[in-house]
Amino acid sequence: MSGTHTGVPSVLAHELPRPVPIDELEACPVGELFRRLGDKWSMLLLILLGGRPHRYNELHRAIEGISQRMLTRTLRALETDGLVRREVHPTVPPGVEYSLTPLGRTLLEPVSALADWAVRHEADIREARFRHTGA
Predict the structure, then answer these.
(1) CA-based angle 57:102:107, to the nearest 5?
(2) In what residue span(s) does the HTH hxlR-type domain sit (predicted)?
C-alpha cells in the first residue's frame, strides 16, 4: 500500500536500506534541504520574508545576534536554492530587497505545520527531556 493511503507521506513510507550508504545520505535532496533549513538562521529568514519583502538592514535589525557576514551567507544560500529573490533597486545608495520566490512560498505551509507541531508538543518534549536527564 502506498504512503498516501496509509497516512504516512510517500517519502517516509519506503524503508531505508541497511546500512544507509553515507554517499547516498549526503547526496539525498531531502537531507540537503533539512541541512539548509536546520541551520540557525534559514528558517527564521523564511518566516520573516513570508510576511513581506525586507531590505537587508531590516533583516539585520530584526534578527538579534546574526552577524552581517552570516546574514549575507544565509541569504545567498537561500537565493542559490531558489527560495529567496534578491532585487537591487536603482537608487542612491542602491537599495536591495529580499523576498520569497514562488518556490520559497511553497515552504511556508510545511514550515508552519512544523512550527504548530512544536508549539503543541512543547510541554511533552520538555517532560520527556526532564524524565531522561532529571534536570
Answers:
(1) 85
(2) 28-126
Q: Hey, what CATH topology would domain 38-133 get?
A: Arc Repressor Mutant, subunit A (1.10.10)
CB 57 within 8 A of CB 16: no
Give the C-alpha separation, 135 to 130, whole Å. Answer: 5
Distances (CA, A) of 50 to 12, 44, 46, 81, 124: 27, 10, 6, 16, 29
Residue 30, CA distances (Å) to 26, 27, 117 in order: 10, 9, 20
How many Å from the N-terminal Cα to the C-terminal Cα in the chain? 43
pTM of the model: 0.76
User: What is the distance between the alpha carbons of residues 103 and 97, in angstroms, rounded to a whole number?
Assistant: 17
C-alpha 78/C-alpha 72 separation (Å) is 10
Reading the block at residue 26, the C-alpha cell is: 549526503
Segment 87-135, tens digit of pLDDT: 999 988 888 999 999 999 999 999 899 889 999 999 999 999 999 998 6
User: How far is residue 45's CA from residue 104's CA, in Å, rounded to a whole number?
Assistant: 11
State yes or no: cis peptide before 110, omega within 30 of 0.
no
